[in-house]
Each structure stands twice: as structure tokens, then as C-alpha cells.
Amino acid sequence: MLCETQKTKTEVVMIRHAQSEWNRAGLFTGWADSALTPAGCREALMAAEALMASGFTFSHAFSSRLKRAHQTAEIILHEMGNQALPIIEDWRLNERHYGALQGQKKIDMAAQVGEKQVWRWRRGYLDNPPLMDSDNPAHPRNQSQWSDLDPGSLPSGESLAGVRERVMAFWHEEVSPKLSAGRPLLIASHGNTLRALLMALGNMTVHEIEGFGIPTGTPIVYSFSEQGMPIGWRYLSDTETKAA
Predict the structure, then answer these.
(1) Largest CB tally within 10 Å, which of 13, 73, 109, 171?
(2) Predicted pLDDT at 241
(3) Could you give the CA distance from residue 156 to residue 149 in angstroms, rounded to a whole number?
(4) Residues contacting residue 144 through CB under 8 Å, at least 6 positions apart
(5) Are 220 and 15 within 8 A, CB to CB?
(6) Alpha carbon of 136 to those of 43, 139, 143: distances in Å?
(7) CATH says 10-98+159-243 is which class?
């Protein structure tokens, strides 16, 4: 709870992309470039309407380099009449790379290795998925989409701890310098990436983050002090706030 005398300098709106085709199919998605479903497009539109009703306008917009996050940001900005604002893409906002699990059905993997192991792969902080072979055509090193990046930075699979490292590097380079301007920023990213970011900003414990999930298409409003220090966050939807 914020004290009445404490002034908020900047708010950053973070949103997990709306429902994608692979979300709907129950697949481990990772860096696979799945588009939004029609339901996902409607989720993004509803997020835009909630942001407009709350009076938001954005000075900068960021998204991962994956289609589902960019589409979410694009729909939000277009619906808000802010479509001229460029969306700055950064691979460090990409979803956690699920390694050899990518493209596998979660329900099938649970039948093979047990629900507890699947839960650890999905929620565990230090747990790595089975790594993807470097000669796999789906490996980022073998895809032209990532050819501009240092091959050494392209993962074969990641833990949430690894995602935290790269997303915080993005935060310190791209977001922190803009907090003093006082205008809201938009970040469209992914469930695990935002979990890692919220963990770092809010000093959440490993136990807390392993039990924490983020719904699709629901804006998170994070408030920062005039000095750029995290104050606290809330879901824009009251229903999601109470559930969390």
C-alpha cells in the first residue's frame, strides 16, 4: 500500500502476450514464433480498453522479438490511437527457451515423466529443461531470425535464473535510464520473462516465484519513485489482483 504522501514518478505497464496458438494447444512454446489466436486478439483489445479507461499514454513501447508479444503491443497501441509510436524489439524480452521441450505437449510430457517434473520444468527457478541439440533446425543458431546476434548468447535451453540475468540486463540498459522522464512505458513480453523481472524488482524469494504465475493479456502496472526505485505493482484488473 502506498502512503498518501509518497509520489509516484513513473509507471511501467508490463503485459504477458495474449493467448497464442501454441498456448491454446497446450504446447511448450519457448522461442517458437506462434501468432495470437482470435481470442488472443480480443484479449489485447480489452487490455487496450482498460489502459485507455485508466488514462494511460506511453512514451516508449518495448516487446520481445517473438510475434505474439509484438502483436499484443501493436494491437494495444493501435486501439489507443498511438500506432505511430515505434515498438522497440529486444531479444532479451523473449520467452524462456524450453530447449528440447519446445513443441512438446505438456500433457504428453506429464504422462511420460510425471506432473511433478513438468511442474519443475515450468516453475522451478534453477531447473533447466532438456537441452536442444545444436544441430536441430529449431535451434536459434540455425534460424535466420537470430543471425544478427552473437551465437554464444543463443540458448539451447534456459532456467528462470538465466532468463532473469538477461532481462535485467535489458532493464538496466533500456528502461532504468527512462524512468526519470516521468511518462509511462509499455513492455509486452512473456510469462516467464515477466516472472523473472518481477522477482528481481520486488526481491521475491525462490519459493514465492516458483508458486507465481501471470495470466495472459492482463496489464501489470508497476510504480517507481522519483529516484527510479520500485514501489509496488498491481494488476489493472481488480479480479486478477484479488486472485493473485
Answers:
(1) 73
(2) 43
(3) 14
(4) none
(5) yes
(6) 34, 5, 10
(7) alpha beta
Q: Is 95 annotated as catalytic?
A: yes
Exactly one of 95, 139, 190, 210 is catalytic; which is it? Answer: 95
pLDDT category at 8 given cuts 50, 70, 90 is: low
Between CA 137 and CA 195 the distance in angstroms is 28
Question: In angstroms, rounded to a whole number, what is the distance separating the alpha carbons of residues 163 and 196?
Answer: 7
Residue 211 predicted with pLDDT over 50: yes
Neighbours of 239 (CB within 10 A): 10
CA dihedral 131, 115, 219, 170 (to 10 degrees): -20
Q: Where in the chain are the domains?
A: 10-98+159-243
Nearest Cα to 119, choosing from 33, 28, 198?
Answer: 28
Sign of the C-alpha dihedral computed for residues 75, 78, 84 and 85 taken in this order: negative
Q: Give the Å distances, CA to CA, from 55 to 42, 50, 52.
A: 20, 9, 5
What is the rounded distance in angstroms from the CA atom of residue 42 to the CA atom of residue 115?
Answer: 31
Question: How many CB atoms within 10 Å of residue 85?
Answer: 16
Q: Which of 11, 17, 43, 97 is catalytic?
A: 17
Q: What is the pLDDT of residues 108-118, one digit of tens each?
A: 999 999 999 99
Q: Under DSSP, is residue 209 helix (H, G, I), strand (E, B) or coil? A: helix
pLDDT in tens, 121-171: 999 999 999 999 999 999 999 999 999 999 999 999 999 999 999 999 999
Three-class secondary structure assignment of 75-88:
HHHHHCCCCCCCEE
Could you list the beta-strand ranges (E) of 18-86.
60-63
